[in-house]
Amino acid sequence: MASDSRTPVVLCWHMHQPGYQDLSNGQFLFPWVYLHAIKDYSDMAAHLEAHPNARTVVNFAPILLEQIETYLIQIERWRHGAGQIGDPLLAALVAETLPEAGTPLFQDLVEKCLRANRDRIIRRFPAYQRLAELADFYKEKPEMQRYVSPMFLADLLVWYHLGWMGETIRQENHCVRSLQEKGYGFSQDDRNALLNVISEVLASIGPRYRHLAEKGQVELSVSPYTHSMLPLLIDLASAREAMPDITLPQHDHYPGGELRVSWQLQQAKIVFQRFFGLEPTGCWASEGGLSQETLGFLDQHGFRWTASGDSVIHNSINRARELDSSAPDSDTHRPFNFGDSPITVFFRDDGLSDLIGFTYASWHASDAVGDLVHHMENIAAHGKRGSKPVISIILDGENAWEYYPENGFHFLDELYGMLEDHPHLRLTTYRELIAEPVCQPVQLPHLVAGSWIYGTFSTWIGDPDKNRAWDLLCEAKLHYDRMMDNGNLNADQKQAARRQLAICEGSDWFWWFGDYNPEQIVSDFEHLYRRHLVNLYDLIGFPPPASVFHRLSQGSGEPTHGGAMRPGHDQDAQA
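^ that's the sequence the OP posted. Answer follows.
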């Protein structure tokens, strides 16, 4: 590709969900793994299959892959009468007997079936909208629930899953189309048929992406095993590199953090190899969270590239220029090396990425893609003499699309269609770029620690609620270390404890704590985090302290898109 004079563009889609499964009983507390699989992971693969000249990077968190596998195992065991489906919503979809109206379980299922985008999902389908209106009525007048037909909940469960179905499945799958046309009065056979569709889609995720990778159309990369924030595990004080005045937790470090980072990366590669049969070249360190020390660990584990947000490179260049006025000017669209690390680091164009995440959902697809490509063409035309820009758009591959019409179908179809044969822009991958002599990295002495969000770690540490969560984790790790060393645990118990600790180390818990996030989601995640900690204490045979049972965070905000995505720059921060 060295002879190709077009400007390289990398679209990197990051797929991840935290550990929603309670490992003590096998139950999934929230359904987001399988729902995003049938809606987003399937659609994203289908768009690439429809555009064979397109190239992308797709990054997976290993804990997500394992949970998809667990769903498939549970469904298969249920089919053979050897176990239950551990997700309440999925189990209810095919349950022969549903809870009676007016019972707490009935109300719980109804409320869960309304956790979908009202404008883009529920109101799109008149039958689903009517059911949602009835559900709202019954909630306001619970005494009327005694007159509810059993068919109400059955139909609501079917429409919930139909609503979450990916657009490419909706267009192509005969069962889904026939159920939508039927509209109401769904039978047990209808519900079982829908489960079969869901199971088939889940089973296809790994093979489809593996096939795309084998064709060379997709580069698959990986995140740390449970999407943990590596720089903070290594050194909590790394948060001060970008925010010198940040308030840190009472514990000044995470005990044994460097060993845990190595374990997280090693386990990530094991899971990745098992699913895809490939050795990953790149690692999207969770949330683009990097530090100079993190680069060293990535190098030790054989990774050749990583990436972060453009605020991180701006901070790093500013720091370099404080020490040496001849240091290069700020340039998002170049790869970099830092210190003596050979890892090539690419940087997200936050402006372009955030246009997709927060702006284009309300635009006509052709206008949105035309605007985005126009920005790219300008970047390509104004590249510095003697250097070729690399345009990196790095984005959550799942949460943005529910805000677009038809799950982003028209936008993505138009985007790939315009870019796969563009005369001045070429879609490529990071693995291909690091092999090209035209993309030699710029050298800087030190990477200033930070993430793709604001160039800091403020989304995960510094807030009083987040700091309390870190203190709970640090305390649990101290007890874990002592109990793992006392000789009372056998090999299987130790293995289970290591995995449970890894889940507690995930970045998502800390993301959601804080008053600026929505109350319901904060409640969900802080309850799940504390449950994971209790499970860890149970596995190591140590009584959990009372502090684990105290509520950590309340939440009362209304951030854009519910807080599941954030813009990259501080001026859009958590006001």
